[in-house]
Write a structure and sequence with these properties.
Layout (H helix, E strand, L loop, with lengths): L5 H10 L1 E4 L5 H17 L14 H4 L3 H8 L5 E5 L18 E6 L1 H4 L1 H7 L2 H9 L5 E9 L9 E4 L7 E2 L4 E7 L10 E3 L10 E5 L8 E5 L10 E3 L6 E5 L4 E3 L10 E8 L4 E2 L19
Antiparallel strand pairs: 1-12, 2-3, 3-4, 4-14, 5-13, 6-15, 7-12, 7-14, 8-11, 8-13, 9-10
The structure holds 2-oxoglutaric acid.
Length: 291
């Protein structure tokens, strides 16, 4: 089955993102959501974790415990929470299934259902259509965008966090497991912005230093008027070029917006920066998409 037409490929290369309706069936979406709800029911939350996840770098990594937890999460399944979901004793003040911002970063490796979707023939076919020679999976996340409290994701380029030389080798695959609308925090893009390089990089600081990561360069000023919403129905997917500027707003609605997302890198003739926060490990080298 061909998942991308020539026109799709052209549109992706031109705009830096591409919406693919009906990429997964409703049943596949429900199965992923059901598995996630089992994971959440059983999750064991370490004490230092009972402080919130934030897309603001400084806030996110302000304690050593949280910084370690984040930076070693590339080959694990770990939990990152919304703001204000714990009281000052670290007890949940919202139902635990409404507390999470996201789970990452190795669902694609350790959760069979997520692994099978990641390595499905549809995803492989799509990579072939984009002429990827040796694509590997870098990371995966389940993002909840909780009703009422799901935080905004500020404008960014994924290559800021997943830097390669040359650029242009990383692509996100973002799959809506529920309808994603303007009201519940769908993605917004600046079409064509992937053609302008990146303005900042997140790098590991030298061993023994705290904080564990820092930025080189600055996030550029983004013109709000240039952002275009990309609402997508349950089962729809969005391909995200590593350098396209995108964001999502807070979820102020009463409906969640669950997504499963993962990043693919063309590893042929590509250098993965040893300064990236995410590094392949002995336990989990970046797996080949085609295997
Ligand atoms: O799902 C979202 O709200 C944001 C996701 C995103 O920006 C990303 O994965 O790069």
């Amino acid at each position: 089955m061909e998942v991308l037409t020539e026109q799709d490929v052209q549109k992706y290369r031109e705009e830096g993102y591409l919406v693919l309706e009906c990429f997964l069936s409703p049943e596949e979406c429900d199965a992923l959501r059901e598995r996630m709800s089992e994971i959440v029911e059983r999750m064991d939350v370490p004490a230092h974790c009972r402080t919130q996840f934030s897309t603001d770098h400084d806030e996110q990594l302000k304690s050593q415990g949280n910084a370690d937890y984040f930076i070693t999460s590339g080959d694990k399944i770990r939990y990152f929470f919304e703001k204000g979901v714990f009281d000052d004793k670290g007890e949940f003040i919202v139902p635990r299934e409404r507390s999470l911002n996201k789970i990452g970063h190795a669902l694609h490796a350790y959760e069979p259902l997520f692994k099978s979707i990641t390595h499905s023939s549809k995803v492989q076919n799509l990579a072939q259509k984009l002429e990827l020679i040796n694509p590997v999976i870098l990371q995966s996340m389940y993002i909840f965008k909780q009703p009422g409290i799901g935080g905004e994701v500020t404008p960014h380029q994924d290559a800021t966090f997943l830097y390669t030389e040359p650029l242009g080798r990383v692509m996100g695959m973002w799959i809506a497991l529920e309808d994603a609308t303007v009201d519940n925090g769908c993605l917004w893009f600046t079409p064509g912005s992937h053609k302008n390089g990146i303005s900042r990089r997140m790098v590991r600081t030298p061993k023994g230093m705290f904080p564990l990561t820092d930025f080189i360069g600055r996030e550029q000023a983004h013109d709000n008027k240039l952002f275009v919403p990309a609402p997508v129905k349950k089962g729809g997917a969005i391909l995200i070029h590593g350098e396209v500027v995108h964001r999502s707003a807070e979820n102020t609605s009463d409906r969640s917006r669950h997504v499963y997302t993962f990043h693919i890198m063309e590893s042929e003739n590509t250098v993965w920066s040893p300064e990236n926060w995410l590094q392949p490990t002995e336990e989990l080298p970046f797996p080949s998409l085609y295997s």
